Amino acid sequence: MLDAKRTEEPIVTDGSAWRQPGPGAPTSSSGWGARPTWATPGAPQAGPQPAPNSWWSDALADPWRDPDAPVVVVKTPSDEAPELEKPPPPSSGPRVGIGLVLVVSIVTALLAGALGGTLGYVFAVGGGGSLGGQIGGNAPLNNRPPESLAALAKKVLPSVVTISVRVGNGTSLGSGFVVSSDGHVITNNHVVEGGNDTATIRFSDATVATAKVIGSDPESDIAVLKIDTNGLPDSELAPVEFGNSDQVQVGDPVVAVGAPLGLTSTVTYGVVSYLDRPIRTSEGGTSRYYAAIQTDAAVNQGNSGGPLFDAAGRVVGINSVIGTLSEDQSSAGNVGLAFAIPINHARRIATDIINTGKARRTVMGVQVDASYQNPLGGARLTQVEAGGPAEAGGLKAGDVVLAVNGKPIEESWDLTALVRRYAPGDTVEIRYLRGTARAKASVTLVADAK
User: Fold this and answer.
1) DSSP state of 409
2) CATH superfamily of 362-447
3) Out of 2.60.40.2890, 3.30.420.10, 3.40.50.2300, 2.40.10.120, which CATH number does the structure's domain 1-41+76-359 have?
4) What is the mean pLDDT of residues 380-384?
5) Which among 18, 30, 139, 366 is least buried, having the fewest CB atoms inside 10 angstroms?
6) For the segment 59-98, what is each residue's pLDDT rounded down to a tens digit?
7) What is the DSSP letter of 296?
8) pLDDT digit string (tens) for 159-195?
9) What b/e string do you get for 194-214 counting C-beta neighbours within 10 Å, with b at 16 or more?
10) CB 173: neighbour CB atoms within 10 A?
11) What is the tens place of the pLDDT at every residue in 389-445?
């Protein structure tokens, strides 16, 4: 768990990928990395039996008709698994107000969702929405207005894929999208991390192909795969259209597409709720930083690596982490706080990986004091690299950076996240505090030497 910097703020935590254990693998009931148990197909389930004349007595195994059954989707595992544990009975005590304790977890939306046995909670809400025009109306079926959400979904679904990777005794599940006619696919690094560099790709029409991981950058959480196109119809490779994440505004409508909880080709809709939200997650000893697009589009485990589209069907982000009220990653779910890596950042990293095999990270040549805390925020510089961008801009050790291009620094690591939003060669305005005097500096950023 990451330390809370200020007691009045919610605790921020990050967990490992949720992955399905293989046969004989141990399970745990709680904590990060907890593995769920799965119901054995066809096995009798304990519990109260219906009266012979109950209206649902002929459908004991149907969770949508049995009012006492849990509303879950169970995907049959390939190997025999233990019986699904029963949930504890509801508490009879008083309900604790959410205002008393708010624990917000930033968890890898990974899904790594235990394919072969993903449990999903599905709640279907009637109604429709549009991106600037009415959906359907009096138009014939399959002839929706081009500005409708239905038309957008039809346009982009062929470009979105579900990715599964064998990791140890389990399977990691995530999403991705085709970015070139020769079969390159972008996803999150945490979707493929720990695998053997081979993945299975499933298209929206159920066509299946294999792919190789050609490179990744754990700190940016970006990975690039290359599909084996032998025997694959050319029509299956429909590259996405890229948008410009620098032009996204708060309130813009967005559409997330992916495989939440293993439910492939799922489309959800929302708006951009914040821009350049500094995000840091830590997993496996690697810290990831980026200035995220925040959205209320429903994103869950399995959405990771999938695209976030604008109203014109152009990719503006990669869905990567979610905010949740649960500290247990296996039960984490969307609460209207999802975070996407801006596509300008992701595309730059992916291009580096394809062209050179590694990614360049943007830096300003400073080190910060991770222990620095101030009610006003800011990042205190402990070292300024000689001859580096920050020194050239006039910054010195001891200065407290308050903002980058107008975006405030609240935690010391915010500076890293906000700087990496920009490309090497970009010039940013730094507002800082030296003693009690406020000042500004122009800093031209560079690529690191890694």
Assistant:
1) -
2) PDZ domain (2.30.42.10)
3) 2.40.10.120
4) 97
5) 30
6) 344 343 334 433 333 334 444 444 434 444 544 444 444 3
7) -
8) 999 999 999 889 999 999 999 999 999 999 999 999 9
9) bbeeebbbbbbeeeebebebe
10) 34
11) 999 999 999 999 999 999 999 999 999 999 999 999 999 999 999 999 999 999 999
Structure-token pair, residue 244 = 């410009």
SS3 state at 171: strand
- Matching fold, domains 1-41+76-359 and 362-447: no
**What is the structure's pLDDT at 118?**
38
| Cα–Cα separations (whole angstroms), residue 56 to 44, 65, 124, 355, 375 | 17, 6, 21, 60, 59
Q: What is the pLDDT of residue 271?
A: 98
∠ CA 298-18-21, nearest 5°, is 140
Structure tokens at 279: 């995000």
Provide the 8-state DSSP code for 235: G
Q: What residue has token string 């500290």? A: 327
Annotated active-site positions, please? 190, 221, 304
